[in-house]
């Protein structure tokens, strides 16, 4: 089962049948096919493949009609005078309040005809909008598919193929974000380690409305890319919606550092602080090398810093946590709507494993794969979590290719810790809460919370109350957290009393 998980979990590709010859093609479709200003045939192939993929594979059940209607409504992001409404069993396309076209709504599950209707709406709207006339096929894919995926969650998104016209730069750099186009915004879907965004207060879910004073609605896909990129060290000015307010940020474009794992060794206390910025293909290799150095330096304990770690590859997080655990322990289960998503992974045999008292630092930006890593060590009493509640993302994205060369990143499964708890929505609760703590307010030290079952199984009301007493906060590089972890690891009895009360591991292990 272990091999099946590592081979299949992240690279499963859905296989769909070749489009069968259909007999229920609407009579108006031939007119749309004859429209030569857009590659309608190619666009139909890509959008229908996306619809089939999403309706079959998405963790959240969604119909073709829901996806298509969201796509058609997004035409208003190209030009606000274009509007779409549903009138009973008909879909109306309007410009300046006048009906341009009226279509019979297909059956809810009919991906083929909802795709046709989406393209027919785009063709109908173009003559009435100079902005829509300038949009090419890739621009429509960006708008339609991200609008459709936005009905599922804030993580699923479409990424087009690499553009053919990027700016030529001597030292190309960026701010280190992944994003999707939602309406008149670019919504941040990921913050990459080492970039300037990771060193700012930008967060997943923040929405960029303008770049260097240029509104996102006025920019093509390539123009957006070329504005976000620039020479290493150059500045970029962003206007964004954050915490319900319009705000501005100035960041420097930088080149992303090579390794997501860095460390600092305190010779006096013999404690090693390991910073894991993200779980990438280099994380396990970097962590193994760092743990080897910890052994050489005779470290007495580890502080593993996951603050502002927004996740990355779940497989890497599983393999990283496996380094610390004895063999044959259930580490993770995954489940979605498809049978292929039901996987589990158990810890592997190993000659030597690092056995240290461990404090894992978390904050409100610790998410996804980082939540798994912290959670499994916490549940098996191999680490005390110090910090604040985490972000609350317990779902997995798969990436699948589309005929146009782009990719769909789709939420298709949810993961569960050994106890059966998923951090989705509420995240992990720390053993020692540092919310609001500073170096000046560490006396007396925070009381350890070792009973996690009430948090994992409690009601919404209970969890909201718990979050009020220990609110999620961004604590990146906050020295109070490091000091609390240091004092904890140096006090063996207090460390043992701070571990989670229930154990899924035997005392001998």
Helix-and-strand structural type: alpha+beta
Strand content: 15-25%
Based on Cα principal axes, name the global outline.
elongated
Largest sheet: 6 strands, antiparallel
Ends distance: 23 Å
Low-confidence stretches: 1-21, 505-509
Question: Radius of gyration from the CA trace?
Answer: 25 Å
Q: Which CATH-level-2 architecture of the largest domain? A: Alpha-Beta Complex
Number of DSSP helices?
15
How many DSSP E strands?
22
The number of distinct structural domains comes to: 3
Mean pLDDT: 87
Indicate the CATH topology of the largest domain. 2-enoyl-CoA Hydratase, Chain A, domain 1
> For the record, what is the CATH homologous superfamily label of the largest domain?
2-enoyl-CoA Hydratase, Chain A, domain 1
* CATH class descriptor name of the largest domain: Alpha Beta
Helical fraction = 25-40%
Walk me through the topology:
Elements: H1 2-8, H2 29-33, H3 40-57, H4 64-73, E1 82-87, E2 90-95, E3 98-104, H5 111-125, H6 130-134, H7 137-149, E4 157-159, E5 172-173, E6 177-182, E7 185-191, E8 207-211, E9 214-215, H8 221-228, E10 230-231, E11 235-242, E12 245-252, E13 261-266, E14 271-276, H9 283-296, E15 301-305, H10 314-322, E16 330-335, E17 343-346, E18 358-362, H11 369-379, E19 384-387, E20 395-401, E21 407-416, E22 432-433, H12 453-457, H13 460-469, H14 479-490, H15 492-498
Parallel strand pairs: 14-15, 15-18, 18-19, 19-22
Antiparallel strand pairs: 1-2, 2-3, 4-21, 5-10, 6-7, 7-8, 8-9, 8-11, 11-12, 13-14, 16-17, 16-21, 20-21
Helix pairs in contact: 3-5, 3-7, 4-5, 4-7, 9-10, 10-11
